[in-house]
From TrEMBL:
Family matches, as HAMAP family: HrcA
Residue span, Heat-inducible transcription repressor HrcA C-terminal domain: 112-332
Protein's job: Negative regulator of class I heat shock genes (grpE-dnaK-dnaJ and groELS operons). Prevents heat-shock induction of these operons.
GO annotation terms (biological process): negative regulation of DNA-templated transcription
Organism the protein comes from: Dyella thiooxydans
TM regions (residue ranges): none
NCBIfam families cross-referenced by the UniProt entry: hrcA (TIGR00331)
Alphabetic keyword roster: Repressor, Stress response, Transcription, Transcription regulation
Protein name as it appears in the record: Heat-inducible transcription repressor HrcA
UniProt-recorded Gene Ontology molecular function terms: DNA binding
Keyword Cytoplasm assigned: no
Family in the record: Belongs to the HrcA family.
PANTHER family associated with the record: HEAT-INDUCIBLE TRANSCRIPTION REPRESSOR HRCA (PTHR34824:SF1)
InterPro entries: GAF-like_dom_sf, HrcA, HrcA_C, WH-like_DNA-bd_sf, WH_DNA-bd_sf, WHTH_transcript_rep_HrcA_IDD
C-alpha cells in the first residue's frame, strides 16, 4: 500500500481525524464537533475542534455534506487513515478458524477452490469477493494422452497437477496410427511430466532443432503432433466474482445508475480483470480507494487485494470490492489471510517438479 505523509499533521489533528474516520466507518453519518469532543479523548474546546476541522477540510481530508453540519472523510482522508493512522491487527482466531474450516483441503480442481475463495470472501466481508483464475500453463503437466479422430485429427488430453483437464484438437498433415500415438504419449510423459507448458515448449523446440535428438529418432512421424500439443492455446485469464448483490445494501452505492455501471463491469469483467492483473504484478496487499483504481465504475468503491501463488510463483490476486466506508482494519487482514491460505492449498495441490 502506498505511503502518505501523515506526519504533516500535528498530533491533535491526527487524533481528531482518526476519531472522525472511525466514527464515520462505524455508523456512516457525518460527524459533528460535539461528537468528536466526546469520542476523541482530547481536552480541547469545541471551538478548537471546529478550527482543526476547518484546517482538515482545507487540506482536502474531510468534507461537509450540504445537508449536515458534520463532516465525512474524503478518499484522500481515507487514504491517509489507512496508510498512517490505522493499526492493523492479525486476523482474529475465530475468523482464521472459519477460513480454514470453509476452504476445502482437497478441492476437485483449482477453479473449484478459487470459486470457494471468492464466495467465502464475500460471506466474511459482506462485499463482493473477487479472485483471478491463473492460466492453466502455470501448473505442471501430470499426464498427456492422444485419441485418434477422423481426417488426420488428434484429441490431445492434458492433465495438470491441479487435476484440471484441458482438451485440444490438432490437425496433422497426415494421420498417425494408434501405435504411433501411444509411442508419442509414452515419450512425452516420460520426459516432460512435472514441467510447465512454457518449459515443455522450450525443451521441444531445442530437441526439434537437434538433428540427432532422441525425439527426432523415435518420433520422426510425431514431431508435428508433439509441437502442436503444447502450442500456445491463446487461453484468456478470467476473474470470478461472488456476492455482487451485497453492494445493493449500502446507501452510498444505492444510486441506480451507479449500480448499473458497477454490475456491467462485473458482467463484462474486462476492466476488473485489468485491475486484478495489475494487482498481481505487485506482490502483497494493494488498496484502491474511490478514483484511485482508474476505472469509473469503481469510483464509489474501495478495492482491497492480495496476491497468491505456489512455489515462489505469483499466480493471481484475491480481493473484495465494497463501499469506501468499510472496516479496513478487519477487511485487510481477512483478504491477506485468505491469500495465504489459498497459496498453502495450491502448494499442496500442485507439488513442484
Amino acid at each position: 500500500m502506498r505511503q502518505h505523509h501523515g506526519h504533516e499533521l500535528d498530533a491533535r489533528a491526527r487524533s481528531l481525524l482518526r476519531s472522525l474516520i472511525a466514527q464515520y466507518l462505524s455508523d456512516g453519518e457525518p460527524v459533528g464537533s460535539r461528537t468528536l469532543s466526546r469520542s476523541s479523548g482530547l481536552d480541547v474546546s469545541p471551538a478548537t475542534i471546529r478550527n482543526i476541522m476547518a484546517d482538515l477540510e482545507e487540506a482536502g481530508l474531510v468534507a461537509s455534506p450540504h445537508t449536515s453540519a458534520g463532516r465525512i472523510p474524503t478518499p484522500r482522508g481515507l487514504r491517509l487513515f489507512v496508510d498512517s493512522l490505522i493499526e492493523l491487527q492479525p486476523l482474529h482466531r475465530d475468523d482464521m478458524a472459519r477460513l480454514r474450516r470453509e476452504l476445502p483441503p482437497q478441492p476437485a480442481t483449482t477453479r473449484d477452490l478459487l470459486g470457494n475463495v471468492s464466495s467465502l470472501l464475500s460471506a466474511m466481508t459482506h462485499f463482493a469477493g473477487v479472485v483471478t483464475v491463473p492460466k492453466q500453463g502455470d501448473f505442471p503437466l501430470r499426464h498427456i494422452d492422444f485419441v485418434a479422430l477422423p481426417d488426420a485429427q488428434v484429441l490431445v488430453v492434458l492433465v495438470f497437477a491441479d487435476n484440471q483437464v484441458q482438451n485440444r484438437i490438432v490437425r496433422l498433415a497426415k494421420p498417425l496410427d494408434n501405435r504411433e500415438l501411444e509411442q508419442a504419449a509414452n515419450y512425452l510423459n516420460a520426459h516432460f511430466a512435472g514441467l510447465r507448458l512454457d518449459d515443455i515448449r522450450a525443451h521441444l523446440l531445442r530437441e526439434i532443432r537437434e538433428a540427432g535428438s532422441e525425439l527426432n529418432r523415435l518420433l520422426a512421424s510425431s514431431v508435428e503432433l508433439a509441437a502442436a500439443s503444447f502450442a500456445p492455446a491463446g487461453e484468456g485469464e478470467d476473474v470470478l466474482v461472488s456476492g455482487q448483490t451485497n453492494l445493493m445494501n449500502y446507501a452510498e452505492l444505492a444510486d441506480l445508475d451507479r449500480l448499473r455501471e458497477l454490475f456491467e463491469a462485473f458482467q463484462k469483467k474486462n476492466e476488473l480483470l485489468q485491475l486484478m492483473e495489475m494487482c498481481a504484478r505487485a506482490p502483497g496487499v494493494r488498496l484502491f480507494i474511490g478514483e484511485e483504481s482508474g476505472f469509473t465504475a469503481l469510483d464509489g468503491c474501495s478495492v482491497v487485494t492480495a496476491t497468491y501463488g505456489a512455489h515462489g510463483r505469483v499466480m493471481g490476486a484475491v480481493g473484495v470490492i465494497g463501499p469506501t466506508r468499510m472496516a479496513y482494519e478487519r477487511v485487510i487482514p481477512v483478504v491477506q489471510a485468505t491469500a495465504g491460505l489459498l497459496s498453502d492449498a495450491l502448494n499442496r495441490a500442485a507439488p513442484t517438479s
